Structure of tetrahydrofolate synthase:
Amino acid sequence: MSDNRGSGNGGSGRDDHEGFDTGDEFDETDLGDDNANPLADLSPFAQGDEGTNLDDDSDFELEDTEYQDDADRVYEELLARIGEAAPQPRLEATRRAVELLGDPQRTFPIVHVTGTNGKTSTSRITESILRAYGLRTGLMTSPHLRRVNERIVIDGQPISNRALAANWADIRPFLDMVDAELIAGSEEPLTFFEALTVLAFASFADAPIDVAVIEVGMGGEWDSTNVGDGQVAVFTPIALDHTQRLGSTVAEIARTKSGIIKPLANVVSAIQTGDALAELERAVELTESTFATEGTGFELLGSSVAVGGQVISVRGLAGTYRDLFLPMFGDHQGHNAALAIVAVESFLGAGSQALVGDVLAEGLATATSPGRLQIIGTEPTVIVDAAHNPHGAAALAAAIKTYFTFDEVVVVLGVLQDKDARGIIAALAPVAARFHATQSQSERAVAYDELAELVLEVTHEDATHQFATFERAMQDAREWAAKAPRRAVIVTGSVTLVGEAIDLAAAEKWKQ
């Protein structure tokens, strides 16, 4: 086992905020009328503000620079609250805050997405299809890779610094009121994610939007996003994760996640284990909702590798859609796309009317999922993936074998303390020629030398290398990969590490 310690690592603004899985028959009502928008007059800045393009790094870095300090202060105030790694199992606090604001979450319909893996990608694909239909969309996902703005997306663009700061200024007095009430009742004040959820709902109402796609933070039943009522409830595959918070069995976790199902909702689900499926079926029956599951109600008919992604065919609820290009790698992304298609079918017409072919094709072709099998460098190839549990790591390993033709891969790995590091390593070992065990700047990161010991236990000495700093781990990995034409670097294990890799690629201007 090689030991490349380098210098120690410092703190980071991302600390304690990767607690969530870094993972879609209504009239298309126009919510543009200020009379239908209780927050329409609160912000002098946010009306019609479309932010910037998350996938255009140059624009994202340069936009709205005069408001950068204001946006930074918003994030600092959020970070001062209880972190996402320690969510409060309650809804009353968030419900009280949105009530004081006039319930902004009720000014638009919601597609609510939960599960263990694939939530973010499914949410982003769902939002992209809805936007292709001409709807003005809101999208809330977590965690972020580089900037908190990424979590609140309006009409395909991360919220601008200006709108972020203006909406925060609008809601902060109401958050202070709720904090005071909670403290008076011997409860913790609003947490980071509770406050962020209120901010997202207020920002969406202020935009305004036609529909919101909301990714659950953790669980479902008591997650703060559950103050909104999802007309469509979407379930990605449910597996063991966050067991200290959600339960020690898949059935317990599924029971908590099924709490997002509201009366008379349309529920769509990926393939689930028997225990998880039974919990969802129980909740569907109690709420008198409709239920469509992958494999019976709909299915991914096929997927073939294509340049830049894959071509998929899907049998939906109301139609069959063939030969659609999806610019994402991995069979799991094909299943996520099928789930998203059915979520949109359910939203637009309860699955009774097939989607328009060219509109659907546009929505899929323009969908992105940063940090999920994303190529951030070439010569050598560097791929980042936010897999942070064994299920996600297994999907990553399968995609590497199916969608790429690498002879050898080095995995640069960093894992947080509440994750199954051994399970992640075991899932990746079949495709990894070597591991570079390191750590992100998060205070919750497993120490690089401890992680290296786990790698050694699962693999062997020649495959195990340890680095005290991520920068040194990446430098060595890229140098190793550059020595042969069909080698690659995979950065994975935590969202914080992926975010640092994207920052490093931008700073060093890796070829793409």
About this structure: The longest strand covers residues 299-306. The chain has a mean pLDDT of 88. The chain has two domains: 52-365, 372-508.
